[in-house]
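Run log, item B.
One chain of 129 residues. Sequence copied directly from the ordering sheet:
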Amino acid sequence: MLINTNMKINEVTNIPQTYVATVRVVLRDSNVTARTTIRADTVQQAKLMLTRIYGDGNVLNINQVMSEDDEVTEGTKKLSPQELQVKALADKAEDYKQQEKTLKARQQMAKAQQNLMKATSGVSASNKR
């Protein structure tokens, strides 16, 4: 069994990402647009490798593929359907509380504006006398 002792730490800790690219394939008499995938550490490296393969100016678009496993972290817990339902209801309750606060604030603002209008109309009426 051989152990590679020359590997860098980022070669062990960083798993290459998958990228999907749209490339132009130049043929003798025509061009064809195709989609392909490539694995690389960064989008820049993926673009460099694709440019080397397909030629300068022929890498039209490149996007990282996100799998569901990438989004789930160790602290993330998958919820059961019942737990999801409870969470959805709790989120709705929180939304209603926020709507209530907003409505009360608007009502207070409208009342304050009415009081201001009454006060300014009373002052202007007394100035006319």
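Observations after the first pass:
- Residues 13-66 form a domain with the Ubiquitin-like (UB roll) fold (CATH 3.10.20).
- The helical segments are 9-13, 43-54, 68-71, 81-128.
Flagged for discussion on Thursday.
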